[in-house]
């Protein structure tokens, strides 16, 4: 999930990334079976989880404040394990350079894309986004304070609170990006954990978020707003 909802969005260009094993360094190529044995089917979701765990552990050891976002955060909250894009980590804007230095010290490449709200790196052949703004709003200390510490495939790390997670996705809707189908299963997965009244108060008066919330009501994913039919 990034500013354009990339954490769950299919608009991200297809990535063909070489899988990596957990046991080696960040640039060690993957072998999906023992030497001399036929290769096993590649598990892209597990590869993304392995990269997520390594980055999360690295940021924890360095003492950086962060929270996992995107599709892996949805998985941590009980959503689908089907991960096909990347892993997203939210950090404070003022901490971005320090986080980048930590990644470089660990031997990971750090790239600055044209977008001015994230950095990119690669770990175990998987793309990692280091995000310091969500839906055009800077990541804040309050947002990180609300994060839940959850196991991500056995590694504990801060994960965006469900309300913040859905808010970041819904607020990214616009005339140019409005893929309700990508966010609908996420809303279903975490609906009981989201403060929908707070979400409506934050973005419900914007046309695209309001339309999505209305869709959720009509599909009986959430209850209608109080006072509305």
Automatic annotation (TrEMBL):
SUPFAM superfamilies: Nucleotidyltransferase. Residues 1-41 are annotated as: Disordered. InterPro entries: NT_sf. This is Nucleotidyltransferase. It comes from Streptomyces incarnatus.
